[in-house]
Amino acid sequence: MAQKIMIEGLFKVFGPHPQNAIELFRQGHSKNEIMEKTRHQIGVADASFTVDEGEILVVMGLSGSGKSTLVRCINRLIDPTAGKVIVDGEDVTRLSVEGLRQFRLDHFGMVFQNFALFPHRTVLQNAVYGLEIKKVDPAERKERGMAALEQVGLAGWEDSYPAQLSGGMQQRVGLARALALDADIMLMDEAFSALDPLIRSDMQDELLALQDKVKKTIVFISHDLDEALKLGDRIILMKDGAIIQSGTAEEILTKPADDYVAKFVQDVDMAKVITAESVMLKPKAMAYYKTDGPKAALHKMKQSQISTIFVRKDKKLFGVVTADDCAMAAKRGDPTLEQILNTDIETVSLETPGVDIIPLLARLPYPLPVVDADHKLKGVIIKGSLLAGLSERGTD
Amino acid sequence: MTVYRIPIGDAIEAGIDFFVTHLSFATIAFSKFTTKGIAYLSEILMFLPPWAMILIFTGLAWFLSKKWGIGLFTLIGMSLIWNMQLWGPTMDTISLIIIATLLSVAIGIPLGIFSALSTTAYRIITPVLDVMQTMPAFVYLIPAIPFFGLGAVGAIFATVIFSVPPCIRLTCLGIQQVPREMVEAADAFGSSKAQKLFKVQLPIAKTTIMAGINQTIMLALSMVVIAAMIGAKGLGGEVWRAIQRLEAGRGFEAGIGIVIIAIILDRVMQQVAGGKKQQM
């Protein structure tokens, strides 16, 4: 995938003589030491990373870790002290005032923690703000604004004022404002942090669904690890302005770079992170509906020492039979599995999280089949394998 | 032994003399502009008979405030003024207030914007405003005389100086109070400085700016009365004459007229400023 954003050696130091502070940092002094010595606050320290086109990168850290400063350096709401910010091959830090203005219009949509909607403008007028600045003609502006509002599920609200909307809806307007501009990069600064947990979770789901359609490059700032794990294709962890680890959710969970990260992730509910794919086992045996009769199925089960077997037809998962039923059918002399086949079975997809699997497993008398989009059996989950998956990190 | 006396007063007088001799083109222009303005405005206000004007004022007050109570008060109050035979002076006072307020707003809002956007301007303007607001109002009347002579123009000059600070201050405050995220949002979506100012900062600051204009009007009203001492006509002139002749009754009548005008202006302005707030 193409690299959309490339950040190299980015520093942001607050104070009149930032170069001294950078020098001290390079010599290995910590943020607090530099603060004591020079009264300079290090916002971002030597950050380098890339964001691929179409991916969601979550920048995570506690408050004061520099994540908000970092994201503001990307569109230069804050001017970085040193380093490069390259977007589509162009160094943003070298743009003129006018060039930067144009660049922001072309490339950056931004969503803010406290929504930052304009109270004197209607929902539609808020959504089209960027287009208005870009001097798009009014008819097209309205059309694109309405389309953006529709995308975020706010059709019919265009003439309301932000104050008349709930928090979740206000942030949808914020999202629509960024989408309407059709910029290729979305910078989302703690976009859902001000929402209550249920709405937040809904908004995360909607963002993911939306991202499937619009395929933006998203830099998402969050202090919430669960949110980072849910949204992020990759995650960057920051502390004291520096990046201490970057990688996929699983990498960060299973191989924390240091004690700080380990502590950060220790409270994660693994059931939410782990997916069906990572805990499923390869099915030991399978019966074929067209060729296997009860006797053959029973034989396969005995060989593999299992008490139920899944039945396949036309390369698709068709149903399940138990050993007891097979034995009875064999006695009766049934030629096929038709009589005893249970086709009404629960399945899960490869991406189903552990938290959804647990209740299913609890009530099923047979293992839980995992299927792909074509309903082909990819694996099975038994209680033991799920528990092993959940506890694996503890023994790592 | 004589102690050296720092010649502050002398310096100020020299400064005023300098302005009078070298800036006469400006004072003459200002003088012409305001004299004409006051003349036209008085003519307009006196063109219709009082009863017609009372109806117009009532309608205007009701329309602007959207409250029938304020309209009713205007109707009764203005009728009382007419009945007390203070109609002419009242119209003079109103035209002085209108001209002074227009000038104050024309000066105050740009200066307020300037001091909100530039730290240097803020550092210079704020202490000047502090001095302007603590200086006794009467003092402004003194330089007004050499600049413009006795009469309405000098009164307007002193009134503008006296009433402009809240307009500057609250415009500045209103813009500074626009939440940082909103300013960032305007920037993030590529706004130029002018776009940011006119599309975001000023509209959001509007309520505060209106409060500043309201204060400016109130201060203008009080100063227009004081300015009668240097020959401004109007209700203040009536009060001043009553003082000199020791006519308590006449003085109070004019005083009541001023109170009525003040209440009408204040209530209407509050509704104009607050009404917008409800929409937001």
What does this structure look like?
The complex is a heterodimer of chains A (396) and B (280). Helices cover 41% and strands 23% of the residues of chain A. Chain A is built from 18 helices and 16 strands. The mean pLDDT of chain A is 86. With 280 residues, chain B is mostly helical. Chain B has one domain (20-279): MetI-like (MetI-like fold), CATH 1.10.3720. Chain B contains 12 helices and no strands. In chain B, helix 6 packs across helix 8 (152-176), helix 7 (141-148) packs across helix 8 and helix 9 crosses helix 10 (193-226). Residues 276-280 of chain B have low confidence and may be disordered. Classes of the chains: A alpha/beta (396), B mainly alpha (280).
The major pleated sheet of chain A works out as: 6 strands, mixed
Q: Largest interface here, residues on each chain?
A: A-B, 28 and 20 residues
The SSE order of chain B reads HHHHHHHHHHHH
CATH topology of chain B: MetI-like fold
| Beta strand count of chain A | 16
Helix run count of chain A: 18
The secondary structure category of chain B is mainly alpha
Globular, elongated, flat, extended or rod-shaped: what is the shape of chain B?
A: globular
Strand order within the widest beta sheet of chain A: 6-7-8-3-9-10
For the residues shown, what is the average pLDDT of chain B?
A: 89
CATH architecture of the largest domain in chain A: 3-Layer(aba) Sandwich
> CATH class of chain B, please?
Mainly Alpha
Number of domains of chain A: 2
CATH superfamily of the largest domain in chain A: P-loop containing nucleotide triphosphate hydrolases
**What class would the helix/strand composition of chain A place it in?**
alpha/beta
